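Is carboxymethyl coenzyme *A placement plausible here? Inputs below.
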Amino acid sequence: MVDRSVKLVDSQQGKEIELPVYEPTLGRPVIDIASLPKEAGYFTHDPGFGVTSSCESKITFIDGGEGKLLYRGYSIEDVSENLNYLDTAYLLYHGEVPTKEQSEAYTQKIKYYRLLNERVHHFFDGFYYDAHPMAMMTGLVGSLAAFYPDAIDINDEKMREITSLRLIAKMPMIAAAIYRHYKGYPVIYPEHNEGYTESFLRLMFERPGQDYEPDPLAAKALDLLFILHADHEQNASTSTVRLAGSTGTNPYAAISAGIASLWGPAHGGANEAVLNMLDEIGSVENIPKFIEKAKDKQDPFKLMGFGHRVYRNYDPRAKIIQSICYEILERYGDDPRMELAMKLEEAALKDDYFIERKLYPNVDFYSGIIYSALGIPVNMFTVMFAIARTSGWVAHWNEMVSDGYRIGRPRQLYTGNNIRKL
Ligand code: CMC
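Reply from A.M.:
I modeled the complex. Tokens:
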């Protein structure tokens, strides 16, 4: 595993410390600093984990400079063109694309595990009709730990697989139940023969006494968005799932922690924030004013859907989304926010502030426009992201548990009071 080493010279202590360096398959080599406290008495300091690798992983790779994203070695362009979401989930978890038989068996299992225990629906009685969908989703997914206490047997590979299937299967059911609670619609159950996203559309929009046929284009667009959002290596929510999971907690609780982390506007909440921002900007003439606000360090306003911790180039997912966005808008009617978004992107990409900092549109810049065209309310956008990211979360959690792990426990640079007396 150790491919070479680097020497750290501590001139104050007159010491040289040799640290092993590991070469990845792709990306930058990493220095193993685990021996630093013992050899030299130091911890390291990296707020926001900007340069720290927290684990070894074989699932997803991002080349931020080139704007490339790979799932298990396949480019996101290749995956999104040739696989559906469930096959992508299988690939992320198992490491290989499923054969036709494996794909069919996986789809059947997802159908088998998707029903929610009826008691879950009673929780809705405690929520206001307009409670934020992410608040409800965090609570409901965490509550599944109470229904599946057997999931705590995390060292059982079979049980881990069942947990992952249950989660991927139930997330659309939970999301649709949240929407129906908001609308006051009665709970409905899935049809047997529909695909994952078609079934989700029915669960959301079918009303008693009215025929509903899910639109294949809408189902295709959702499937694509789910693929693009499925995984993104050690992002904040995935790292949260790993950290919570590293205590050996019930996996439903760990995924619920991931959902909570995803909610923030700097992460999955950005898709909701983008549409709110476009509404606030209102029209093309106001773009220069908002670009100036985004550049002003005294102003907390940021261009939502722009910038990324890892990408210093166009987010490849944003490019893929743009093409389906046009198809959807053609079918569902133009949305003036699309033109506004394009003009905003154009203005930002010409501006020195954004050029120098390599700030480009990310996946969430256009995804909300599609969700909105499909009739999904803005406050449900992050819930959509959570449905998709569940496949990544369970793949990472499973990898961590099967590879062997230690409890995640960061250190700190303490700058509080020295010891004192009362
Ligand atoms: N608008 C204006 N300035 C920005 C923006 C933005 N959207 N993003 C970064 N900057 C500036 C930032 O102020 C800093 O400037 P300076 O060097 O003068 O201090 C510089 O660019 C570098 O940014 P950073 O804050 O060090 O970047 P980060 O890696 O800490 O944060 C980010 C990444 C995604 C949180 C941030 O770009 C952001 O808040 N963007 C808007 C929210 C957003 O779209 N988030 C979705 C990310 S993609 C979906 C996902 O994977 O969850």
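Short version: Strands lie at 4-10, 15-22, 30-31, 60-63, 68-71, 74-75.
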